[in-house]
Specification:
By secondary structure, the protein is mostly helical. Helices cover about 60% and strands about 0% of the residues. The longest helix has 19 residues. The chain starts with a helix and ends in a 37-residue tail after the last helix.
Length: about 220
């Protein structure tokens, strides 16, 4: 895909959604960190059902650590892999207090040293909480980047590196949100909604959903 086409794609995504935001409910970097950890192999909707009560009662590392493993599990038990996630979060809260003075660190190395925090989660925190021009590649962004030919790659790291290389600086801060939302609601895995896609003519996907043809007018007998 040539640079002009890539630029037009992001111009259209920006026009359609000038101020994209994560759909995970949060008020602080810590709450965002917790929500992103919980969202692994789960839906944002499912996470948003449990976090309001959790954050009301334990919205800081100190308070969440004080809950203990079993009580934390009781808040998040409807989420997949909740026991493993609870274990990670309890340990993360301990480390945040002991090493980072109760604050979420602003560098990738420190973030990825926390239990349950990989490169994708670190990128989300750096971008959404701290305004860094990072791009967190999840399954939606991986699909969109490859399907459209925007930044094809064999794995998520390669796609991330190519997006950072190819996307103009003016779009990098919001690119993560535009692409994930596009993949979630339009460029779906099984049934992409190509007929209503705002970048249909710029996309290089060979198997686009065909546009519906207008109904043929009935011919009256002469």
């Amino acid at each position: 895909m040539n640079p002009d086409k890539r630029r037009m794609i992001f111009q259209r995504l920006r026009t359609a959604n000038p101020a994209p935001r994560t759909e995970l409910l949060h008020r602080t970097p810590f709450e965002l960190l917790v929500a992103v950890v919980l969202s692994a192999q789960s839906t944002d909707r499912g996470v948003n059902r449990v976090t309001p009560a959790l954050f009301r009662d334990a919205g800081t590392p100190r308070l969440m650590h004080a809950l203990g493993f079993e009580r934390l599990c009781s808040y998040i038990k409807t989420i997949g892999l909740y026991r493993s996630k609870a274990k990670h979060l309890i340990e993360t809260c301990r480390l945040l207090q002991e090493i980072h003075k109760g604050e979420v660190p602003r560098d990738r190395q420190s973030l990825q040293a926390l239990p349950g925090v990989g490169r994708k989660t670190a990128n989300v925190i750096l971008n959404t909480a701290f305004g860094e021009p990072t791009i967190a590649v999840d399954t939606h962004i991986f699909r969109v980047a490859n399907r459209t030919a925007l930044a094809p790659g064999k794995d998520v790291l390669q796609v991330e590196q190519r997006l950072l290389k190819f996307v103009d600086d003016e779009f990098k801060l919001d690119a993560h949100h535009w692409l994930i939302l596009h993949g979630r609601y339009t460029c779906k895995a099984r049934k992409p909604e190509c007929t209503t896609c705002t970048i249909r003519d710029l996309c290089e996907y060979r198997s686009k959903t065909p546009a519906s043809k207008p109904p043929r007018k009935s011919q009256r007998a002469l």
